[in-house]
Design the sequence.
């Protein structure tokens, strides 16, 4: 498909043959799902040639390999993205049209692989795309969740979690690799014996175990024949079924191993509000980390005799704290299975593992109760204990008589295993994901570690892949960009800067606005079909789609919608440009406040959307089950991008970049990557409001913020807040949203009132929204700003981010794959 001339005839024959051999049907008899499977297998056949060629080059050239360890990989649909990166999307579309098939309809048959949830997982997916496109050998390492986090249904306005059975029809782009099978052990105890060499030897006995089996998915690089691998692990019992136990009547014992294996890979982020949930989550982390490290070491030893050379050929990047147990697991294997001394193993480990921090908030840094950790991973715990003992000695030597340093920095303290501390102590690199985020880590949250290890800390501002979020997600705009600046932007996003000269061109502005309108019509049709709500494509599409968390302030957004509704009701003739407010978010199953916010959004939508007196000036839409495939449409259609997190709380954000790339204008705080976006695009082309990170941090340190002062002195705010508990949006149930009201004014014991400064920033937010309404009426000015946003998005490509990781941290070697194509 790349080097050869594409043959429509051969492709159609391949699809036809697949339908016949898989389903005993003709194309006319096949269902859309069956056609999707057949088309995908035809594409996979092409990918397989390049995948095998890539593996052969890796075997021959022996480059350094990255193992990117992440609990999440939010990949999105593979068919369309693979076709784009193969350079065959247009040809395949035409070939299918010749036999009466619509590629868009076929793509809609593909489930979104339920392997992630939010920005962390989508970043990992973008990084894998960039690694392949830039020509670096890499494995993404994670878990093959059978049901993902959950499929979100909205019933009576509430989020209801149901299983996301994305594998029910089979997934054509995965490849089971049973030849790489590893045993993972849990529980039991450690026996120590003295060896002939005089050293102690450690053996875990009395354990339960499962087998880890990898499923590989191809990650296709754009236009370069390189295909990397996403290696996600499934769990299987060592013994499927104990007939002996069953015959004795012990039916639970008969399937015990099977249940352990199934539970490990059932869901992403099991609810850990209880002990069993915490145990399962820790087991999941150890399961995929241990399997991935065993696979990496087996691959290394195939070509190398000396494990002391491991750092020259292998690097493990820990994506947040979830995979941090990798530190102790690598040590365990080197000590117990390879017979190394502690110092040898530590030298290797600390030159192989690196850590990306994704959160500023201390409470989000993962900690495990020691009793759970020690019970589930007894030998790994011993190693963590020894790492901690040596590190505490180092702290006390450096800071004598300063036990406060020990309290803050020890890995084991106050009955907890502090995973971020372990990652920093062992990692050769510690990076934040936006400049402001890294500065806050260095000066605030991780200051003690930064003072001790300044050479480890660095920043790598996040990025996104333009191939999925422009080339695939917004083909109309992608073609327009190519028409004006050429197609090199697909692999070098900085080329879009050449659009700057078109920002003031009336013809280009009109073309852009027409493309935006077509994308809004497409999304409006989806909303009508799925929500039953008529929205006006000529209204301002104001969008906030992301994981639902209090610091992201979806609550402030919907309170502002309530405020606008009050304004219009009180002043029916007021000058107001129609708005469609679009939300999309999942709340963690155990996160009560977040789930109540979803209910509030939906009840406000129900009231406003059904009030004929406002003449459709406001519409509110909550997109059910927000995921990558619908996200692509939303980014393409958005006019306004809501990035309104409390300053100092958002590590980076990547949704902000996807909106920018698609010509939406940001409404945001100076938080995360918004700061760098502001610098790139300029103050005239972004709407910034609210307190700065320094101001927020100062309030938190001085405890001098009282939301009651604002509540009592601003009647508009007071009315909106009171509407949470006066029955306006709850059919006179005054308690339904009491929890949200209390979070603003009456916190529970140990909590802080309006912790995320919603009321403090509310008036500034409302004023910025008012400016947007005025600015949008000047279509030429709006189009200019939108085009300039696209033109200045070049910095925010994941290709740039990955190249910085390669240059500064990983030191990978490029590979070149030559193939005859297909």
Sequence:
């Amino acid at each position: 498909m790349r080097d050869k001339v594409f043959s429509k005839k051969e492709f159609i024959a391949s699809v036809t043959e697949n339908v016949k051999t898989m389903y005993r049907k003709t194309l006319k008899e096949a269902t859309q799902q069956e056609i999707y499977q057949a088309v995908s297998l035809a594409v996979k056949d092409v990918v397989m040639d390049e995948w095998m060629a890539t593996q052969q080059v890796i075997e021959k050239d022996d480059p350094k390999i990255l193992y990117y360890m992440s609990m999440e990989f939010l990949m999105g649909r593979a068919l369309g993205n693979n076709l784009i990166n193969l350079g065959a999307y247009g040809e395949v579309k035409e070939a299918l049209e010749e036999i009466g098939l619509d590629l868009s309809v076929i793509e809609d048959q593909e489930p979104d692989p339920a392997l992630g949830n939010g920005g962390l997982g989508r970043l990992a997916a973008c990084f894998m795309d960039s690694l392949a496109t830039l020509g670096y050998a890499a494995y993404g390492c994670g878990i093959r969740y059978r049901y993902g986090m959950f499929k979100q249904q909205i019933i009576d306005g509430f989020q209801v979690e149901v299983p996301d059975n994305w594998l029910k029809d089979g997934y054509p782009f995965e490849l089971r690799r049973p030849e790489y099978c590893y045993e993972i052990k849990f529980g039991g105890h450690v026996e120590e014996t003295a060896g002939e060499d005089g050293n102690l030897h450690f053996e875990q006995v009395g354990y339960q175990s499962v087998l880890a089996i990898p499923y590989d998915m191809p990650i296709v690089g754009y236009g370069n024949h390189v295909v990397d691998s996403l290696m996600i692990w499934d769990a299987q019992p060592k013994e499927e079924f104990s007939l002996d136990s069953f015959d004795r009547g012990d039916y639970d014992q008969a399937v015990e191993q099977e249940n352990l294996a199934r539970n490990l890979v059932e869901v992403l982020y099991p609810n850990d509000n209880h002990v069993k949930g915490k145990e399962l989550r820790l087991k999941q982390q150890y399961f995929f980390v241990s399997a991935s490290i065993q696979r990496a070491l087996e691959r290394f030893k195939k070509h190398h005799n000396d494990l002391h050379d491991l750092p020259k050929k292998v690097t493990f990047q820990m994506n947040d704290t979830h995979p941090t147990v990798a530190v102790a697991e690598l040590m365990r294997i080197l000590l117990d299975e390879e017979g190394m001394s502690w110092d040898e193993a530590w030298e290797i480990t600390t030159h192989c593992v690196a850590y990306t921090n994704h959160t500023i908030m201390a409470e989000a840094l993962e900690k495990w109760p020691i009793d759970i950790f020690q019970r589930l991973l007894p030998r790994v715990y011993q190693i963590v204990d020894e790492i901690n003992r040596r590190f505490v000695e180092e702290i006390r030597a450096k800071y004598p008589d300063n036990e406060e340093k020990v309290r803050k920095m020890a890995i084991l303290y106050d009955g907890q295993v502090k995973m971020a501390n372990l990652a920093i102590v062992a990692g050769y690199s510690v990076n934040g994901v936006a400049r402001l985020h890294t500065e806050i880590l260095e000066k605030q949250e991780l200051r003690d570690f930064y003072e001790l290890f300044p050479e480890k800390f660095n920043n790598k501002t996040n990025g996104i892949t333009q191939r999925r979020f422009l080339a695939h997600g917004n083909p109309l705009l992608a073609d327009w960009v190519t028409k004006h600046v050429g197609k090199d932007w697909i692999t070098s996003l900085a080329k879009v800067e050449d659009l700057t000269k078109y920002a003031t061109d009336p013809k280009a502005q009109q073309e852009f606005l027409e493309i935006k309108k077509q994308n809004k019509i497409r999304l409006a049709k989806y909303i009508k079909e799925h929500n039953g709500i008529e929205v006006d494509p000529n209204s301002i599409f104001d969008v906030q789609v992301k994981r639902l968390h209090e610091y992201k302030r979806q609550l402030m957004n919907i309170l502002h919608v309530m405020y606008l509704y009050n304004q219009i009701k009180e002043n029916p003739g007021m000058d107001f440009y129609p708005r469609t407010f679009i939300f999309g978010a999942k709340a963690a199953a155990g996160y009560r406040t977040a789930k109540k916010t979803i209910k509030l959004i939906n009840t406000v939508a129900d009231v406003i959307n059904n009030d004929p007196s406002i003449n459709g000036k406001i519409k509110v839409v909550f997109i059910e089950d927000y995921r990558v495939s619908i996200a692509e449409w939303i980014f393409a259609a958005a006019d306004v991008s809501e990035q309104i997190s409390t300053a100092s709380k958002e590590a980076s954000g990547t949704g902000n970049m996807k909106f920018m790339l698609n010509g939406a204008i940001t409404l945001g705080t100076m938080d995360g990557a918004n700061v760098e976006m502001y610098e790139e695009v300029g103050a005239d082309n972004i709407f910034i409001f609210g307190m700065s990170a320094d101001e927020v941090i100062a309030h938190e340190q001085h405890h001098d913020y009282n939301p009651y002062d604002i509540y009592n002195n601003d009647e508009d705010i007071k009315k909106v807040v009171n509407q949470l508990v006066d029955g306006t949006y709850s059919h006179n149930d005054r308690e339904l949203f009491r929890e949200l009201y209390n979070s603003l004014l009456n916190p529970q014991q140990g909590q802080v009132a309006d912790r995320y400064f919603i009321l403090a920033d509310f008036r500034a937010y409302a004023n910025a929204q008012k400016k947007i309404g005025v600015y949008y009426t000047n279509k030429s000015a709006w189009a200019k700003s939108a085009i300039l946003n696209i033109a200045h998005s070049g910095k925010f490509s994941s290709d740039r981010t990955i190249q910085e990781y390669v240059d500064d941290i990983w030191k990978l070697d490029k590979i070149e794959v030559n193939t005859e194509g297909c």
In short: The two ends are 5 Å apart (CA to CA).
